[in-house]
Amino acid sequence: MNTVLWIVQILLALLFLFHGWMMLTTTTAVSQPMMGYVLAIPVPFRRFIGVAEILAGVGLILPALTGILPWLTPLAAVALVIVMIGAVLFHIPRKEYPNIVFNLILLALAAFVAYGRIVVAPL
Predict the structure, then answer these.
(1) What is the chain's alpha carbon radius of gyration, rounded to the nearest angstrom?
(2) Is the CB of residue 59 less than 8 Å from the CB of residue 71?
(3) DSSP characters over 28-77
């Protein structure tokens, strides 16, 4: 189970690092066909989301890998669950169904990591 958790943590971390960077560099994000929603988010909030996703991506790996403050890893996963709930709620009125499904998948994976690192295989 520990191996599965590490794989999911690494994949989520890479994805959120990438998406966080895309949120911070709007010109890159807008060129992607599925990321037109980026311009609908106010710039300060978009920057906050980008920084939060980058920090959560780092938090999924670094504390667990170094053993320094390992309780931050499940906390980062819980924070990503909250971010994904917000993302789903953002996309629903815009009827962006592929994004909603993708966000629900990411929410489930982040919840899996949070549960796994708190209950099943704590660090």
Answers:
(1) 14
(2) no
(3) HHHTSGGGGGGGGS-HHHHHHHHHHHHHHHHHHHHHHHH-SSTTHHHHHH
Report pLDDT for 32. Answer: 66
Q: Which helix (H) or strand (E) holds 22?
A: helix 2-24
Place of tokens 């300060």: 44
Over its length of 123 residues, how does the chain's per-residue pLDDT go in tens digits? 889 999 999 999 999 999 899 888 876 656 666 677 777 788 899 899 999 999 999 999 999 999 899 999 999 999 999 999 999 999 999 888 999 999 999 999 999 999 999 998 887
Distance of alpha carbon 116 from alpha carbon 108, whole angstroms: 12
> Cα separation of 110 and 35, whole Å?
21
d(C-alpha 17, C-alpha 20), whole Å: 5
User: How many CA atoms are closer than 13 Å to the CA of 67, on its beta-carbon side?
Assistant: 0
C-alpha count within 13 angstroms, C-beta hemisphere, residue 110: 27
Q: Enter the tokens of residue 46.
A: 């978009």
